Amino acid sequence: MSPRPRKQRASEPSVNGLQPKIAEDESTTPDRYKLECPLCGEVGRYRFALLARRAFEEHVDENHPAVQSPLDQVRTLVDMAETEAGTWECTIGAESYVARQHSPGGFTVEVVSRRTLIDGRLATLDDARITIGGHAKLVSSALATAATIQLRQGRPAHVVPLE
Fold first, then answer.
1. Residue 26 burial (CB < 10 Å; 0-12/13-18/19+)?
2. Could you tell me the CA-to-CA distances from 55 to 19, 37, 75, 86 in Å, in that order?
3. Would you say residue 133 has pLDDT above 70?
4. pTM for this predicted structure
5. What is the pLDDT of residue 155?
């Protein structure tokens, strides 16, 4: 008696815009489902199709994230335009902010409509963006913390600019 023919399966759901390829191999090994990523090639072999699908989700989350990094999110939310050398401006809601570089590795942020300076240690323009976003309540404290951590990981504290 011959085995019943299998039904044609629907294609796998995409994850972050990537479509996995899960192929069943007719070999006698227990791991008969071969998982392939469209960008990386073969990822692995799995005993069940569900395990392969979950492995692909983890693979995409780790290797091909679709979400911007925290620092990129802050840069998107607080869009600053350079008006003259060493001066950047942005308007968020009713407030206008001006970031000025007073020395290499030193920035100040002014809230123009209130004629006040935001007090803080601002070493980069990204520090100024994080500060402005937090002041305007556009950036949550969790996002600001994550962006600051990412910023500090990319640049050790003891680095001196060559100018």
1. exposed
2. 13, 11, 32, 48
3. yes
4. 0.56
5. 55
Q: Roughly what angle, to the nearest 10 degrees, separates helices 125-135 and 141-154?
A: 170
Count of Cβ atoms closer than 10 Å to residue 95 Cβ: 14
In this structure, the chain runs to a length of 163
In angstroms, the CA 154 to CA 112 distance is: 31
CA 28 remoteness from chain centre: 42
What H or E segment, with its residue span, contains residue 149? Answer: helix 141-154
Interatomic CA distance for residues 133 and 151, integer angstroms: 15
Structure tokens that stand for 119 in this block: 């007090």
Tokens, residue 106: 């030193």
Separation of alpha carbons 37 and 77, rounded Å = 32
* More confident call, 130 vs 158: 130
The pLDDT of residue 63 is 85
